[in-house]
Amino acid sequence: MTTSLYWHTEGQGSDLILIHGWGMNSAVWQNILPALTPHYRVHCVDLPGYGFSQPTDAFSLEEMAQCLLDNSPQESVWAGWSLGGMVATQAALLAPERVKGLVTIASSPRFAAEHGWRGIKPEVLQAFTKQLAEDFQTTVERFMALQAMGSPTARQDIKWLKQAVLSHPSSQPEALCAGLGILADADLRPNLHDISMPWLRMYGRLDGLVPVKVAQELDVLAPRSQRQIFAKASHAPFISDPGHFSQELLRFCGECLPSC
């Protein structure tokens, strides 16, 4: 692994990669690591230009996924949250022999709403892009608040998430702008039939960014995948419901990888 990407690695055994979402960094996984590391060697990455990772020219979805593939273990379960789920899915499409299992968390193959597809309204993403240029810090903090919106423990979740994210350097504006572009434009739906490895899709029933009805759409588009919905969670189920989340993730990893 090169120094251009920051990795936090803990545990022993087979490899599990965790990829954060837009505006965040690898610190968001801190609270579930104690449940995972006795069983797997867990690699938490800062995406290019986020946190401790150096900025690169890898701003497209495919380039970002390839950057992680070039700097990660040869065979792993890949788990990605939100934008990170899209990166993990792209990695599974680029190098299926490297990805032993795919986990997408509060993620979608198409984040922007269109023609009956449920998602984030394009004007909301456009507003975030405009606000990012005008007031970088406030825009990122506003997005943090959206992560927990709807959760019964929203205030506590937002406070914890903010503390975790601020423990790393601020992400680069160029990387954040490129990430918003991916959320607005990328569409992996036509490629989902090429995903051959085991795939677990995890959702929060109260999620306002990736509506839970997307899960029903993907039941049709990806009929071989598994679905898990957390009843009391919103966009960050590993924060709202860490115990249940860790249990389900370990169960799935056990189907894909040997545990130590």
Overview of the molecule:
The protein has ten helices and seven strands. α2 crosses α3 (83-94), α4 (122-134) runs antiparallel to α5 (136-148) and α4 (122-134) runs antiparallel to α7 (173-185). A seven-stranded mixed sheet has the order 1-3-2-4-5-6-7. α8 (213-221) links the parallel β6 (199-204) and β7 (226-230). The longest helix has 15 residues, at 242-256. Helices cover 40% and strands 15% of the residues. It has one domain: 3-Layer(aba) Sandwich (Rossmann fold), CATH 3.40.50. By secondary structure, the protein is an alpha/beta fold. The mean pLDDT is 92.
Task: Summarize the helix and strand pattern as letters.
Answer: EEHEHEHEHHHHEHEHH
Strand content: 15-25%
- What is the domain tally? 1
Compute the number of helices: 10
N-end to C-end Cα span: 23 Å
CATH superfamily: Alpha/Beta hydrolase fold, catalytic domain
Give the name of the CATH architecture: 3-Layer(aba) Sandwich
Pfam family, one: Abhydrolase_1
Domain AB hydrolase-1: 16-242
InterPro entries: AB_hydrolase_1, AB_hydrolase_fold, AB_hydrolase_sf, BioH
Subunit structure: Monomer.
Kindly summarize this structure in a few lines.
Helix content is 40%, strand content 15%.
Features:
260 residues, Rossmann fold, alpha/beta, 10 helices
What is the element layout, followed by pairings?
Blueprint: E1 6-10, E2 15-19, H1 33-36, E3 41-46, H2 61-70, E4 76-81, H3 83-94, E5 99-105, H4 122-134, H5 136-148, H6 154-165, H7 173-185, E6 199-204, H8 213-221, E7 226-230, H9 237-240, H10 242-256
Parallel strand pairs: 2-3, 2-4, 4-5, 5-6, 6-7
Antiparallel strand pairs: 1-3
Helix pairs in contact: 2-3, 4-5, 4-7, 5-6
